[in-house]
Design brief:
Radius of gyration: 25 Å
Distance between the termini: 48 Å
Strand content: under 5%
Structural class: mainly alpha
Helix content: 55-70%
Oligomer: single chain
Order of helices and strands: HHHHHHHHHH
Largest sheet: none
Number of strands: 0
Number of helices: 10
């Protein structure tokens, strides 16, 4: 049992994997197992809120990629003499011709509209936060910092401190309060935002000739 390659066996039996394998760009065949698993999990999530099967959702992503391949945009046209990932794989298509663009990238709304998927309130909120991550991060740090300073100020005023004492204490407490704001914000992020697997290629069998490169390390 231990000698069996369960990943390969699963992919041979998975109808979703076979459907996504129709990716018109041809990139899907080069992805590693963790990336393929992430694609399938996205389809599972979409399937829970639509009437379509997982295979039908996968074919919808393939359909969008195929339509993009048939009508490339001017911005995606390859400049003469400029190599791209797709040309390296002997594929002449923009990134919009990959199924991954519609599963985990900016093309996700197009796929959701095609399959009539309605995101939940929590999903919409999460997407808004991730779309404004920098602003939300600094707002959280600032809010915690100001809250800490407000508590210190309230305690000092209740103890009968004057304006000079209040200013002095706030200046002294600014750095610790800011440190607490950064620390609590980072702690909250690491406990609420799950890490996402970056799409990767898998060349464990062989590296295509057009994709080979040299890693040069100058050393003395």
């Amino acid at each position: 049992i231990d000698s069996l390659d369960w990943t390969e066996m699963f992919e041979q039996l998975s109808l979703v994997h076979q459907a996504l394998g129709r990716d018109p760009s041809g990139v899907y065949a080069y992805l590693d197992s963790r990336t393929l698993d992430r694609y399938r999990r996205v389809i599972e999530t979409l399937h829970r809120r639509v009437a379509l099967s997982e295979v039908e959702i996968a074919l919808a992503a393939v359909e969008l990629a195929a339509s993009a391949l048939a009508t490339p945009t001017v911005s995606d046209a390859q400049s003469p003499g400029t190599p791209t990932f797709y040309s390296a794989l002997d594929i002449n298509s923009p990134r919009y011709a990959t199924v991954g663009y519609y599963l985990i990238d900016e093309g996700r709304p197009l796929l959701e509209r095609l399959i009539q998927y309605q995101p939940s309130f929590l999903e919409r909120t999460t997407r808004w936060i991730l779309g404004n991550a920098v602003a939300v991060y600094f707002f959280s740090v600032g809010l915690i910092t100001l809250t800490a300073l407000a508590l210190v100020s309230a305690w000092l005023l209740s103890a009968g401190g004057d304006s000079l004492a209040l200013l002095t204490v706030c200046l002294l407490a600014l750095v610790p309060a800011l440190t607490a704001g950064v620390g609590f914000t980072n702690w909250g992020i690491t406990h609420t935002v799950a890490p996402r697997v970056l799409p990767k290629l898998d060349f464990h069998d062989a590296i295509p000739a057009a994709c080979r490169t040299a890693l040069v390390v100058p050393a003395l």
